[in-house]
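Title: Comparing notes on inverse folding

I've been comparing how different people in this forum approach sequence design from structure. To keep things fair, I'm posting one structure and asking everyone to reply with a full sequence. Here's the target:
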């Protein structure tokens, strides 16, 4: 075999190996990102409720007079009226609320994909309710290793649902 052909084969092997490693890294990153998003669901639910209540208060009573959220609308020497500040603050809050709602809807839709699985509690218990592996195992009458193994399987399914082919190992 000629030296040029050997060099080309080595380059191809290195490229294939690098591609495989990048794919594995992307799948691992998608799994971790899915876990972060699952842990965030209960916090986002509470935040959304708080933000909706605060928005209703701002609409009814106006913003607080000394709020840090107001000062960011008063930069660059611009003088805004109280109504303009209130409208800007409301628009800003509505955008944040819409983003939080979208994330919750996305996660809840993904969770419905695994809801029928007999080990659904391994995911909902851990990420949404904050249960330990032992508590989950006790609730579904199985071994802790079964909890861990099935949660991993279900989170991988959610990863594919959320991130597509990038989550496939």
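Reply #1:
Here's my take.
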């Amino acid at each position: 075999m000629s030296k040029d052909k050997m060099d080309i084969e080595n380059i191809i092997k290195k490229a294939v190996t690098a591609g495989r490693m990048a794919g594995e890294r992307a799948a691992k990153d998608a799994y971790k990102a899915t876990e972060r998003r699952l842990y965030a669901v209960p916090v986002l639910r509470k935040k959304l409720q708080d933000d909706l209540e605060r928005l209703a208060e701002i609409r009814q009573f106006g913003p607080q007079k000394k709020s840090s959220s107001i000062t960011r609308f008063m930069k660059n020497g611009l003088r805004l009226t109280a109504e303009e500040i209130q409208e800007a603050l409301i628009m800003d809050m509505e955008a944040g609320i819409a983003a939080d709602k979208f994330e919750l809807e996305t996660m809840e839709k993904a969770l419905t994909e695994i809801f029928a699985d007999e080990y659904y509690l391994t995911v909902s218990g851990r990420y949404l309710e904050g249960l330990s592996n032992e508590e989950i195992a006790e609730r579904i009458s199985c071994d802790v290793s079964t909890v861990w193994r099935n949660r991993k399987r279900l989170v991988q399914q959610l990863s594919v649902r959320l991130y597509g082919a990038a989550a496939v190992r």
